[in-house]
Amino acid sequence: MNYLGEFVSLGVSMFWTVASLASEVASRRLGVVVLNVWRMLLTLTFSVALLWIVLGTPLPIYAGSEAWMWLLMSGVVGYFFGDWFLFNSYVIIGSRFGQLIMTLSPAFTALAAWIMLGQQLSLMSLIAMTITLGGIAISIIGPGDDGHKMRLRLPLKGVVFGIMASIGQGVGLVLSKIGLDHYIAGVPAHLLPETEVWLPFSSNMIRCVAGLLCFSTWLWISNLRKPAGKRRTLLASTSNRTGMMAMILAVITGPFLGVGLSLMAVQYTAAGIASTIMATTPILILLPSRWLFGQKITLAMVIGAIVSVVGVSLFFV
Questions:
Q1: CA angle 245, 15, 202 (to 5 degrees)
Q2: DSSP annotation of 297
Q3: Is the pTM of this model over 0.70?
Q4: pLDDT, tens only, 115-144
Q5: Would you call 306 helix, strand, or coil by DSSP?
Q6: Spans of all domains in the chain
Q7: Cα dist. 40→75, 113, 193, 292 in Å?
Q8: Which residue from 153, 245, 262, 294 puts its CA 20 to 30 A from 199's CA?
């Protein structure tokens, strides 16, 4: 099918927009760690069910020890480290600004690929980083109350958390690529044509195992330090109907469909085209955030989001 990769990429950007908004609601109502335990648990469950249906087995039977190692590392870095910072940034500065700062992820992906894979860091990549940073700056920096001195419009902590989330996603993506390459190498050649399309979902399942273990351990440790009446538990969170519905929506559109389809998109179109289309989330999220949360939209925010996406596209020129 012509333009399948492009259509999948556009779908991913829409899924990520919905997932970001739903995650903001769920983070505020359930707490970041409880939310992520649920996310990893349900995504793992959905992935197992999907693989059982399409491949006849719920387990990644052709994933060797090296594939498991790299994909588990990707889950720790991308899901645990990256998502912890991302969802906390949603709580502090909102999902639309969190997603805007996440346009830095390709920059950190390029840096990680340069360090870990020896890929060339070109002059165009450096220009793209600069433009992306410029777009973010346009959106989050403006005149102070006196109308002259420039200041940060957002809490510094939320911005730092967004940057840390970008690092987690960028490094996690490179680790995922290494793991997926090892995974594909272990699949018998005669089975590869019929299984290759599902390998991203299978790889993501392994990543979710790491995310679930890390967030569950974090929740257990954090509850040890709290009195019984203030502990956050999965059972207690089920009483928050709005939070649970937002969490389920975030799971379906985020780590299950969003991540799986993003890996599929690059199989059917050029990575640069897919990444650019998927990076339009900061633009798509502006109107929904206005409707749902009453957040003000300014010309600077629109221009900044567009400039950031242009910067992302230049990474793949």
A1: 90
A2: -
A3: yes
A4: 888 877 778 888 888 898 898 888 888 765
A5: helix
A6: 4-225+250-314
A7: 10, 26, 29, 26
A8: 245
